[in-house]
Amino acid sequence: MRRLSMLRILLSLLPLALVACNQAPETPAQEPIRPVKTLELGENQSLLQRRFPAHITASHRAELSFRVPGKIVRLPAKEGDEVTRDQVLAELDSRDYQLVVQDREAKFTRAKADYERGKKLVKQGHISRTDFDRLEANFRSAKAALEKARRDLSFTRLKAPFDGRVARRYVENFEEVQAKQPVMALEGIDQFDVKVDLPENLVRKVRRRQEDVPPEKAPETIAYIHFDRRDKRYPLTFKEIATRADPRTRTFEVTFTMPAPEDLTILSGMSAEMELDLTALQAGGSKNVIEVPASAVFSRPESAKDSYVWVVDEDKMEVQPRKVRLGPIEDDRITILEGLEGTERIVIAGVHNLHPGQKVRLLEGPIGD
Questions:
Q1: Which residue blocks in 72-165 are alpha helix, DSSP H?
Q2: Residue 359 carries which DSSP code?
Q3: Closest Cα partner for 165 from 182, 148, 190, 141?
Q4: How close are the terminal C-alpha atoms of the chain, in Å?
Q5: What is the rounded distance in angstroms from the CA atom of residue 104 to the CA atom of residue 138?
Q6: Sheet holding 70-74, edge to edge
Q7: 67 CB neighbour count, 10 Å cutoff
Q8: Residue 88, by phi and psi: left (phi above 0), alpha (psi -120 to 50) or beta?
Q9: Tell me: the pLDDT tens digits for 255-289?
Q10: Can you list the domains of the chain with their CATH numbers?
Q11: How far is CA 30 from CA 199, 314, 355, 359, in A?
Q12: How much is the CA Rg of the chain, to the nearest whole Å?
């Protein structure tokens, strides 16, 4: 009876033993591959650039007006027309001014004849020196009056002072206009100003670079401009910095210039995006300065006084810490003095969630996304 009970117990445990034998041994969980945002140094360090909204204005602009009053009888220039220097843009009715010129010519002719005759008479003693001085004064006055009349007549034609484009026309044909009343606005088409508002810290960098870096040692430019939906960028030349900050935004207006592009038509008033090259603003204007986002730098618990960045081994797709020596820190940028060669790919976000040798994959997208 006892042996029968033991047999029943063994038979009941047999299925459990079979299941246990069929189960595969457990394997350790594989560490997940962490996605990281990175920055490739060197040539691809163009990500270390800041972009600001900018607006375009013509470098040369003039509000044109007649210097004499009158009625407009010809107004051939329309808004948007391109004109050349000395091209006639508008004309006044000149008949009254022509009559004045004729009158002044007659008076000048008579005064000149009296003056020439007086020179002979005063030498012969037939008239006094006082009488001759009066004849000479009349001659000079008549000459000046004639010159003014001729000049006023020339002012009845409004000419373009430079090659440009008619930006605005304030009057219509056959209107009466006063002297110095604006008639039209003319803007140059060969050179444009790019105006951008920069914060104080960047203004200091721009000004310091202009003062300290000789032109022969400076890079070609520190700024570029991008137009809507175009990948191409155009270099800018520094022009000036406003001396007063905007009281509301505490930014300073900085002006750059650019020649008119041959492959793109731009107009005054257009908007664009200015790209400021931060590496070109470093001391000496060197392009070899390594500057990284502050978010890329961290310290380790075992050496809190030291600074590190994560360097990506792109063959193994894993990260390793690299000790670095820090330079100047400004805003969210840190200059690296030692520890990097300038060709590495470094992690710039989530640096506190990594450990040496961790497998990673690269995230696409610019800094700040």
A1: 95-124, 129-154
A2: B
A3: 190
A4: 79
A5: 12
A6: 157-159, 88-92, 70-74, 176-177
A7: 12
A8: beta
A9: 999 999 988 888 899 999 999 887 677 644 555 56
A10: 34-45+289-363 (2.40.420.20), 49-60+189-285 (2.40.30.170), 94-155 (1.10.287.470)
A11: 48, 20, 15, 11
A12: 41
Joined tokens for residue 192: 């444009």
Side-chain-facing half-sphere of 6: CA atoms under 13 Å: 3
- What is the value of pTM for the model shown? 0.62
Q: Which residue has the tokens 């300038």?
A: 342
CA–CA distance, 229 with 124 (Å, rounded to integer): 87
Six token digits for residue 76? 């051939």
Other beta carbons within 10 Å of 356: 10
Contact in structure between 46 and 226 (CB atoms under 8 Å): no
User: Tokens 């951008």 sit at which residue?
Assistant: 196
Could you give the dihedral angle defined by the CA atoms of residues 79, 84, 89 and 91, in that order, rounded to the nearest 10 degrees?
-170
| Cα→Cα distances 190→65, 169, 230, 257, 281, Å | 23, 21, 21, 11, 28
User: What does the alpha-carbon distance between residue 156 and residue 53 come to, in Å, rounded to a whole number?
Assistant: 43
Distance CA 225, CA 227 (A): 7
* Confidence tier at 217 by pLDDT (50, 70, 90): low
